Amino acid sequence: MNSRDGVTAVDEGKLGKLLAELTLEEKVGLLTGADFWSLDAIEKIGLRKVLLSDGPNGVRGTTWDERDTSLLFPNPSALSATWDPEQVRRAGALMGAQARDKGVAWLLAPNINIHRSPLGGRHFECYSEDPQLTAAIVEGFVSGVQANGVAVTIKHYIGNESETERMTYDARISEKALREVYLVPFEAGVRAGAWSVMASYNSVNGASLTDNRRLLTEVLKEELGFDGAVVSDWFATRSTAASANAGLDVAMPGPQSPWNEALVAAVRAGEVAESVVDDKVLRVLRLAARTGYLDGFAGPAPSTTPADAGEQLREIAARAMVVLRNEGGVLPLAPSSRSRVAVLGPNAAVLTAQGGGSAHVNPTHITSPLAGLREAFGDSVEIDYREGVSTQRILPAIPADVARDPETGEPGFRVDFVSADGTVLATERRLASRLVFMGTVPPCTAEVRVRTDLTVAEGGTHQFSVSGSGDYSLRIGAAEPHAISLTSADDDPIENLVKPPEHRVSAELVAGTINVEMRMVAPDHPMVMFGLNHEAPREAADVAFAAAVEAARNADVALVFVGTTDEVESEGFDRVDLLLPGRQDELVSAVAAVNPKTVVVVNAGAPVEMPWRDEVAAVLWAWLPGQEGGGAIADALTGVVEPGGRLPTTFPAVGADSPVLSTQPVDGVIDYAEGSTFGYRAYEKAAIAPAYPFGHGLGYSTWDYEGITAAETESGAVTVEVAVRNTGVRTGREVVQLYLGGEGADGNDPLRLVGFASVNADAGESATARITVDRRILARWDESAAAWRVAGGSRTLVAARSASDRRLTTEIELKDSAV
Q1: Distance in angstroms (rounded) separating the CA atoms of residues 492 and 698
Q2: Nearest to 361 by CA among 633, 62, 120
Q3: Which of 686, 714, 732 represents a domain boundary (last residue)?
Q4: I need a labelling partner for 252 at 20 to 30 A (CA). Which of 128, 324, 691, 769 fits?
């Protein structure tokens, strides 16, 4: 096995010989999941079972089980905010190593759809609003993961920028916009050697992606030269012959699917040529050979998760954070200069470390910002923590440390799977009260029963609830059970997972131990999900709010943590607005009014409105920073690590300013009428000032831009050098962004990003950023010729700190030519 141009080559002749040993039934059997997360082994050709796993926040594995833990990474938008493909390659390498430890060959990541609208539910799970930045980050991630012998899956191909009616909507996208925007990251992933692509649920220009021969075969496989396997999104395959002939290679999950026996029959009937099936099998075998799951091929070198993985994730998360505002240099905070710090807001104690949906993983721990700050400040600084406001819609899950398995007395919950005649088919101790089963409930289960002995620390009115669609009974202590029936507002199982319906029951309790039992009628569906929740008596909302403001009044500095939850940012549904949930905006303004040194840390993966942004001293955007997020936030606030991130997407002042806001299909159609003019380019065209522009980020230093030169190479590429000087008092990192102007019929098209590079320099020192702009990036899609073309004429190259902060310009003259 050898690697060239990012693609790992295998002996194709040997693959062909193995293919010849298989019957039609064996070949077709390999093309549908053996279950939810694997492909069948075929012993006679040395093919072992190939396991798949969700990403891109980490490698969850083949179960959704809190006992099967994984590294939880900063969210993908955070990785993109590094503007550093090497840091992303580093994160990808960690994820690839983790996949190897879990026996996963095929990782369902990265999600490289575009930030078209800030309301997109999976905005946090994608990289950027800009195709070139996304492409650079994709290449880093692909190379990092696959260097460990694990296949990435670039997804969701294509036009998958909305979660509303996501199974059925038709994205109407012009060929020019497809080529210049939405295909760019996928082309970069193929160029980097990606071994898999996922076909999305939606349609593009009238054809479902799993049935879309033009996009799957003609563009992806033939034009771009993709030699990997195209896998469907789960349950996205809706046809037999049409999807097989279109270029889909693997229909997931299984064993029930539109393929299997139906595809065998279609081949026998002449509806699908056996050579079409053979090509699919070769692609799967090629992936298995590359990942070491096919005998007779040199597998990848050994790889395992390094001992310092947590430390690496902490550093990556801190580097990705973005200083949006820093008046008077209040940041970084020097712990030695503070005696009393108010730490306020719900996200300080309960960090939103990840978004909701299939990207969810179960980490061994999540470090809260409160814990991170206590470690950073030490005993010499008094930290006064107040929640202030609440943002949770449903009651909290029951922590395992206050629950005991009634059978063993160990921490946790006893879960029984019971048949219709009362026989316990299986039983297990779990460590969480919200559970998900993906095809793992024992056959003939009629009822799932959860029992625990709950420690009640204080008497009073306690709230209990069950959450998730289904029929339940809930018994609290010796009281009569409550019969409960819940129905989700949406048929999408992911919405039932992340935003489940809930029914609450009040109970007057005294301190002590009480037995709680929940029973659920097992649904006739492979996915079973439910929650058992509890909240102890709590102080009134106005009292909690006032206590937070008073703590801020008496502190040297007030740190207010605000953010979203996984009920706000998730797969399965789009956001309805850009507002922070609850009274968080009110809390920030009230705190800023009593303490001029108010620092706001925003814990969110996608833009939110910040109406108080000019009232506070500083704003740090912390993203959804993963399991080490609390420590990373402390590192960023205190300057242990420079939060040198830059925004990968534009932050509007108010949602209505967004050039593309709605994600709602109209009569089943989403019209991408804006073409390539959205995001920062549309803000420029409309002369609307955002809250914070694309590429913005202050870091902890200041920079002068001193000179720019550009020269064309023999290949037609343009090399640019930009000299900068660190005028601050700290060592810092600067991201030099290069934009191209002078395009369009009148030369007045909005600027677009064509390259970037980062430099590091000590205080007072100079550095030179070197950027090469490939001729293809300079080209635009000529729809009449159906080809890329560089239009001749003068262009302006702009060196900038952001899309709005432009520092230097130089002119270049381009020759008219096809690319």
Answers
A1: 41
A2: 62
A3: 686
A4: 128
Q: Are residues 74 and 131 in the same domain?
A: yes
Measured in whole angstroms, how far is the alpha carbon of residue 702 from the centre of its chain? 31
**Bridge pairing between strands 106-108 and 2-4:** unpaired
Helix axes 629-638, 369-377, angle to 10 degrees: 50
Cα separations in angstroms, 268 against 20, 271, 272, 376, 680: 18, 8, 8, 68, 53
Q: In 3-state terms, what secondary structure has residue 73?
A: coil
Structure tokens at 218: 């003609």
C-alpha span between 713 and 798 (Å, rounded)? 19
CATH number for the domain spanning 273: value is 3.20.20.300
Q: Tell me: do 498 and 554 sit in the same domain.
A: no
Structural domain of 728 = 703-818
Residue 719 has pLDDT above 70, yes or no: yes
Residue keyed to tokens 């036009």: 159
**Angstrom distance (rounded) from CA 199 to CA 208:** 9
> What six digits make up the tokens of 440?
């793992």
Question: CA-to-CA distance for 545 and 134, rounded, in angstroms?
Answer: 41
Phi-psi group of 159: left, alpha or beta (phi > 0 → left; psi -120 to 50 → alpha; rest → beta):
left
CB 624 within 8 A of CB 599: no
Residues 558/595, Cβ–Cβ less than 8 Å:
yes
pLDDT in tens, 397-432: 999 999 999 999 999 999 999 999 999 999 999 999
- Determine the angle formed by the axes of helices 274-291 and 261-268, rounding to 10 degrees: 140
Q: Give the whole-angstrom CA distance, residue 107 versus residue 52.
A: 6
534 found inside a domain: no
Beta-ladder partners of 52? 106
Query: What is the tally of structural domains in the chain?
Result: 4
Structure tokens at 687: 């002369």
Neighbours of 786 (CB within 10 A): 9
Is residue 9 one of the residues assigned to a domain? Answer: no
Are 133 and 101 within 8 A, CB to CB?
no
531 beta partners: 434, 467
Q: Pairing relation of β-strands 340-344 and 322-326?
A: unpaired
The answer on 227 and 102 residing in a single domain is yes
d(CA 803, CA 780): 20
pLDDT at 7: 52
Q: What is the average per-residue pLDDT within 363-389?
A: 97
Torsion of CA 20, 21, 23, 26, to 10 degrees: -110
How buried is 478 (Cβ within 10 angstroms: 0-12 exposed, 13-18 middle, 19+ buried)? exposed
pLDDT over 80 (residue 302): yes
Element (H, E) at 280: helix 274-291
CATH value at residue 551: 3.40.50.1700
| Tally of CB atoms within 10 A around 296 | 12
Task: With respect to residue 694, please indicate whether it lies within any of the assigned structural domains.
Answer: no
Angle of the 131-146 helix axis to the 85-101 helix axis, nearest 10: 40
Q: Does the model's pTM come out above 0.85? A: yes
In angstroms and rounded to an integer, the radius of gyration of the C-alpha atoms of the chain is 27
Residue 421 known to be catalytic? no
Same domain membership, residue 222 and residue 342: no
| 386 and 406, same domain (yes or no) | no
* Helix (H/G/I), strand (E/B), else coil: 355: coil
Residue 614 contacts by C-beta under 8 Å, 6 or more apart in sequence?
Answer: none
Same domain, 214 and 344: no
Tell me the CATH number at 488. 2.60.120.380
H or E element, residue 52: strand 50-54
C-alpha 572/C-alpha 527 separation (Å) is 15
Cα angle for residues 445, 448, 454 (degrees, 5° grid): 160
Domain assignment present for residue 154? The answer is yes
Out of 84, 170, 211, 233, the active site residue is 233
Identify the CATH number of the domain in which residue 786 sits.
2.60.40.10
Alpha-carbon distance of 722 to 427, in angstroms, equals 65
Cβ(33)–Cβ(254) under 8 Å? yes
